[in-house]
């Protein structure tokens, strides 16, 4: 095994990315009957939780670029899961609202997300599950600190 392969196979970023792509593949299969994919279900659950949101709020919460958010919103709107209207406080921005179809499907969509969680944590103890979540939160905090202007470790030398 060469150094590059050795690094790849032991790198947290590679493993998290691989897990993310695998989860997206599973979600794509399980969400197909609803006419949506993993990106859309994340956005839709956020809008359902809040009742409404702007595209900018959604992009920030999902950590996606505005163009990707716009594409996902178009797909959700085309599927009848959301509606968009002008924000009375800022006419240049649109407010996104869940439709009745989205509210009706919410319980089934949550069941799909729970199914994914059950698969991920199969054969995990409660302690192991808590440890995984705690470690992932720490890694996320570290990455967000760099995004917010913190110096990466190698730049501090």
Helices and strands, with pairings:
Blueprint: H1 3-10, H2 12-31, H3 38-50, E1 53-54, H4 55-62, H5 66-78, E2 82-87, E3 90-98, H6 100-120, H7 126-147
Antiparallel strand pairs: 1-3, 2-3
Helix pairs in contact: 2-6, 3-5, 3-6, 4-5
Mind explaining what this structure looks like?
- The chain is mainly α and 157 residues long.
- Helices cover 67% and strands 11% of the residues.
- A three-stranded antiparallel sheet has the order 1-3-2.
- A hairpin with a 2-residue loop joins strand 2 (82-87) and strand 3.
- The model has no long low-confidence stretch (mean pLDDT 91).
Summarize the structure.
By secondary structure, this protein is mainly α. Helix content is 67%, strand content 11%.
List keywords for this structure.
single chain; 157 residues; mainly alpha; three-stranded antiparallel beta sheet
List low-confidence stretches: none
Spatial order of strands in the largest sheet: 1-3-2
Strand content: 5-15%
Number of strands: 3
User: In angstroms, what is the radius of gyration?
Assistant: 19 Å
């Amino acid at each position: 095994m060469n150094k590059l392969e050795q690094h790849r196979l032991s790198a947290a970023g590679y493993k998290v990315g691989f897990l993310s792509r695998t989860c997206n593949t599973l979600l794509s299969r399980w969400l197909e009957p609803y006419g949506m994919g993993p990106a859309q279900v994340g956005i839709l659950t956020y809008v359902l939780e809040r009742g409404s949101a702007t595209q900018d709020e959604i992009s920030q919460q999902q950590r996606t670029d505005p163009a990707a958010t716009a594409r996902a919103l178009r797909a959700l709107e085309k599927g009848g899961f959301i509606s968009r209207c002008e924000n009375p406080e800022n006419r240049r921005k649109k407010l996104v609202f869940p439709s009745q179809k989205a509210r009706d499907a919410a319980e089934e969509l949550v069941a799909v997300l729970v199914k994914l969680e059950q698969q991920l944590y199969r054969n995990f103890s409660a302690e192991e599950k808590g440890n995984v979540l705690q470690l992932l939160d720490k890694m996320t905090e570290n990455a967000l600190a760099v995004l917010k202007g913190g110096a990466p470790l190698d730049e501090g030398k």
